[in-house]
Each structure stands twice: as C-alpha cells, then as structure tokens.
Prior knowledge:
- By secondary structure, chain A is an alpha+beta fold.
- Helix content of chain A is 30%, strand content 27%.
- Chain A is built from 11 helices and 18 strands.
- Chains A and B meet through strand 1, helix 2, helix 3, strand 6 and strand 7 of A and strand 1, helix 2, helix 3, strand 6 and strand 7 of B.
Amino acid sequence: xRTLISEVSSLVGTDVTLCGWVxxxxxxxxxxxxxxxxxxxxxxxxxxxKPTVTLESVIQVTGSAARNEKAPGGIEVRVRTTEVLSAxxxxxxxxxxxxxxxxxxxxxxxNRMISLRNPQILSIFRVQSTILRxxxxxxxxxxxxxxxxxxxxGTGTEGGTGLFQVEYFETKxxxxxxxxxxxxxxxxxxxxxxFEIGPAYRAEKHDTPRHINEFTSLDVEMAFIKSEQDLMDLxxxxxxxxxRGIRETNQRELDAWKAAVPDPDLCTRIPRVSHDEAREIVxxxxxxxxxxxxxxxxxxxxxxxxxxxxxxxxxxxGYPRKSRPFYTYPAENNRTRxxxxxxxxxxxxxxxxxINRYDMLLENLKAxxxxxxxxxxxxxxxxxxxPPHGGFAIGLERITQKILALASVxxxxxxPRDRKRTRP
Amino acid sequence: xRTLISEVSSLVGTDVTLCGWVxxxxxxxxxxxxxxxxxxxxxxxxxxxKPTVTLESVIQVTGSAARNEKAPGGIEVRVRTTEVLSAxxxxxxxxxxxxxxxxxxxxxxxNRMISLRNPQILSIFRVQSTILRxxxxxxxxxxxxxxxxxxxxGTGTEGGTGLFQVEYFETKxxxxxxxxxxxxxxxxxxxxxxFEIGPAYRAEKHDTPRHINEFTSLDVEMAFIKSEQDLMDLxxxxxxxxxRGIRETNQRELDAWKAAVPDPDLCTRIPRVSHDEAREIVxxxxxxxxxxxxxxxxxxxxxxxxxxxxxxxxxxxGYPRKSRPFYTYPAENNRTRxxxxxxxxxxxxxxxxxINRYDMLLENLKAxxxxxxxxxxxxxxxxxxxPPHGGFAIGLERITQKILALASVxxxxxxPRDRKRTRP
Lengths: 424, 424
C-alpha cells in the first residue's frame, strides 16, 4: 500500500512504501541521500549504499520513517528495498532540480515535457487548477449553467481579421476568437446565466510577454442585468472566490513564488473609474498628458488603486465606441457600457452590456460598416426577443500570471502557442 | 425586484414582478392567458384585455400571485403592468412552444438559435451542465488537478489521418484528436492525477447518429495504477457521481424526456468482460457467431448486462492489439490492457493502461510501423522516468445522449459540427 510523502510525518516509527521521482542524489561514501518527490511533496531517503538510480527515475521504496533534525522537513525514510519502476536516461535536457529563475524562458518552453517536472514550475498549474475550480463553483452557486460551444465557425463576429483558417472537408471554417455569439444565444434561449471555459484563438502577430495565440477564456454571460455595474459586481464576487480559494489551497505554491493574493475582502473596494477619469488619473500620476490607456498607463492605474484602495486592481468603464466590438451597448458621448478589469498592471478582463434590441443592433452594424447578411444566425437571437444582458471574459493564463507575478503569460500556459511555437 | 417563477407559489397573495419570455398566448375575448417562461419554470399570467405582445417577446410584468386550480401548477399571476423589454417579430422560424418530437432533427439544428428556446430541448443542456460539474467534483475529491492543454499540434499521435489542418502563420498545424500526449506528460511531470475537459476533433466522414466531428472529451489520466482494473474502478465512481448528481438536480429534465438514470448504487455491479467473452456473449444471445463487436453487438451486450446485473452498462477489456493505439500496454496473446465502457448500447468511453517504459514503447512503434523521429517530444516523457499509468475519455455528448435516450448525439450537442454542418 502506497503512502503519500505528505503523510510520512505522521507515520514516524513505522514502515512506509513510497513511490515517486528521484529529485536529487547525494553520495557521501558510506551513506547516500536521495530526495524523492511525489504529488504531495518531497522527502529525504537514506540508503546504506549508493543506489543505482538516476535523476528523474521513478522508484518505489520501502523503509522506516524516522525523525532527523538535519533532514529537510525533519523527517527521513531509511530505505530497505528499492524497485525501479522506470529508469531515466542520464542526458536530462533540463535541470529539473535547479532554480527555474536561472533558466531562460525559451529553454523552459522548448523542453516543456521535462521542465514541467520542476516543482516550482509545476506549482503554477496547481494554482491554475484552483482558479478553474473557484470560477465554476462561484458561478454555479449563483445559478449559472456551464456550456460547451463549437470552436469552429463559418465567419467571425469581430470582423474577418485575426482568425485562423481550418480546412473542413470541402469548405473552410475559422477557429473562434470567443464564444460571444453562442453565449448570447444561450442567455436568450432561457438559460439566462451561462459560463464557458474553453480555448479561444487570436491570429495576431504579437510577440510580447502578455500575448499568446491560443488561450483559455473564462466566459460569463448574464441576462436581466440593469447595467454594466451588475457585471462588475459579479466579477468582484468571482475574484474574491478565486483569491479565497487560492489562499486556502495553494499556500505552498504562493510561497514557492514569493507571491501573495489580495485579501478577498478588499475586492469590493476595487475602484470603478470611467475611461475619461482613468486618463486623468494617469495624466496626474505621471505628469504626462495621455489620450489612450497604454500598457504603461494600465500599470500606473493599478499602482494608483493600490494607494487609494489597498488593492492592485481597477475597473475602467465607458470605453470609446470605436475601441469596442459592434455588439457593445452604446452610451452617451460616443462612449459604451463596457469595462475592463486591470489587475497588477494588466488587462485580465473585457466585458460589456450588449445590445439586445434588434433595431439598435442593425443601426450599429451600419455604423461599424458591417453587413447583416453574414450575421443572419446571430441576428436571429435579437429578432425574436432577447433580454437585457451582458458578460465578460477573464483570461485564465493572464490571471494566473498576475497572481504568481510571472514575467510572461507563456509561463502560465501549459503548452503555449505563439507565432513561432507550435510544439511540444 | 425580480421574482423567479419558481418562487411565485410561495408568494400567493402578494405582488410579484416577473421577467421572461412569452411562451403561449390564449385570447378568450374578455380575458387573455399568457404562459410566461423564465430559467426557473413557467407560470400563467392573466390579462383583463389582450396584451400587445408576440410569442417569444421578453417582458416584465407586475401583478398579484393567486391560487387557481385551473391554472397549470395551480398558480397564476393577475397582471397590472406590462413592459416589453424586447419585442419578437411574428415570423418565428421554429415553433418554440410545440413538442420537439414532431420536428425533424434537421429543422431543430438549422434553427438552433431559436430551437434551443424550446424548454424540452434546452433541458438537455441543463443535464449536460450537471454532468460537467459531477465529473470535475468527483475527480477533484480524489486529488486530480484540472489541466488545459493546447488543441493545436504539429503532428498527430494516432497517425496522420482524421486530422483537420489549420493555417498557422507561415506553417500548418492540426486540431488535436485528444489531449493524449499532454495528459501523459502531466502525470509524468508529478501531478500524477489529471483531468481535462475540452474539445476534440475527428476529421472522419461519418454521418451517423453516433458521430460528430467536434466533441467535448472528458479526459482522465492517473499514475501509479496497478492495472486497467483501477481505471474501471475510477470510472465506476465517476458514473455513480454523475447519476447521483442528475437524480438530485435534474428530475424535471428527466421527466421531460421520460428518462431515468441508473441507480448509482448499481454502478459497482457493471460487468467486466474480456473482448473474447464479449464475443461469446453476443454469439450466444443472438445465435449468430460474431468475430467483431459491431454497434449491434454493443446493444446486445448492454441488454445482457441489464438482464444479469440490472444495469445497462458493461466494461469490455482486453481488446486486440491491432484495434488500439500504439501507446496501449500490450497483454498476452496479442491482447491489450485496454477497455471500453458500453452504456445503453453505445461506446461512451475508451481507455487503457499505457506503455510507460521507453524501450517497450520504441518496440511498439516498430510494430505499428511508426517512426520515432516525429514523436521526439512525446518520447521524452518516457525516456526520463514515467510511472505506470493509464486513463480514459468519456464523450460528453454521448453520455448525455444515452442518459436522456436521445436518438442522435447531435441532439446532445449545442452547436454540432458534422460533415456538412458548420453553422450556426
């Protein structure tokens, strides 16, 4: 019967059987120390003679658990029998047991199959798993249904640019940039509240620490809202749930990255400023007049939020009409009922109240120089009765990146796809 | 303040404000009855004069909740004020308030944006949402982490056929048929237990009630198993969790489809028969000697399981080597450590113990006439220590179909993609 390494400390004085990976080997002549790693942690094994194992081999050992003040964690296992379940070759392409901060990102990603074994690198995805759980749990508790929609569409809702083309039997389709049209169809179908977790694609030639061409979109759509404020309220509750979940589940991972999540109770204090106010804040804070909110401006706004509200996040709403998609509900002065959430200097959410009236939508298509012909399926949602609604999407990799203070969003992506990277 | 329709019965004698869709209109001259539908149910509204509303319009009404034995559910709301939030045009392309059994599948799918409004059709996806929840909850409770891997790969693991090609900047990639290589990389990374819920693609020219070209794969992979029996044990617990969850959450939806889920406690009785035994059973039950298990044979096996174990499900294990992928762990007599789960006459799961030893994998590549060159990333998982492991995948749409006894898997897919269908 296998014991997890995390359970060994409560079994001192008894025999245990452990399974895991050989993380480190130290041979002191008469005695050898091996650090064994499993999904629950790591522990020092003591061998009387040097065992014939290589780094990263998977082994099963049986021995007695004992206290030893000098051992990491104060516990060690004195091994009597060893079985090699899978022997690793010696030419490891990535130093699994070294500090990943010393390794260039390209090497980490090129050797992804092996670099994921580094406990600190792997810990990123334990946190990500918690985010996925808390996002879904929070929404389900509020009556949301989970949906799974097609990632292949005939035409793009956001215009034809930025789409990856797929050869589909005798025709061509595109990878979806977001489940936008489907989310809207489903709130209008009567589900009213839906969320989807799925891949989304952007065929953009960016090569920055904040862009990837395939990402996981945490999508939300909600009917019968009064305004975009309801959406910011909902996202506030989601953020608090995620931060609370990570604090409860991932303290070890936060420690590994010397990271901290904001106090969940502070989420309700996240400032909400209009796009115009945001530009004034950036102008005032930097001393330079700004007309757009650049990535640098996003950082300034989050620093300002930290000073004024104690949390490095800010909702910016009321973006100009020309900078948002055609389905965004318009507001006065060529503004929109839209918002972004900036967190630790990065936009991690984009959302808005949507146009739900057919006539208004047709008007807006004209203003955006779009033709209704290609959008017949989409338009039918509104032609036959659609409640007031809105929604938003959180980038899974971006929120993971910012929670752990990672330099690049690619670090927070298991198998990132960028302009040049299509493997592993 | 909005009241959900499900709450009206506890508010008799008070004023309520409801929001929803006009499901049915019946004008009796002096008085009009309207059935209003929201996400929680439907209720009869009473108007003194015929309201100027059309079917499917979204309205908000205020009135007094009252008992009326003649009203459906014994409750009605006598309306005083009505606001039309979104008026529907009168040329509805699909009869939302009719029995969907009378509508051809092609019409349901062609008009998907509107046909989803039919409460019975929509109820399929409430059940699907429960399946998604229970699958994840069951696995998380057993220490599994949720992963999100790329759906774009340079080459296929299952050979080059059946892949959709994507134009990716200056190169070409393919849509993944399964997250197989990534699941294996992640159990070997040290997570040990992972699951993924995501889209999977098969570029096969099938056109049957059991095939779609894009489906949602509920994928599981688990390290340190002793044999494929551990995987069947795990799937048994997952199935019980799903059946239990649907019974607790979706009785209304089951009633709508006159469907029932098996008793969760019977899951442990699901027979496990070898492929050879399965052929004998089919031969005996049908009186015809069989050499392969055809779709008809799958139905026969499930009927046999119902007779012998009281549940319409059966695990078939030990498939011949030539019928399973190259990474399947071989067994004696050219058999494999693989299994399928057949449920109500349909294969809904395929799984196996995988080869975890590098040398054995290289041997098997040869036997399958595959070249190691294109699989360097995959092979590195095994070259550097990989625990014994295995996994399986459940088709979300197929299990939904079978739970509700739907004629086609396409009915259980929000926006199905088949050879000819790429919209909506």
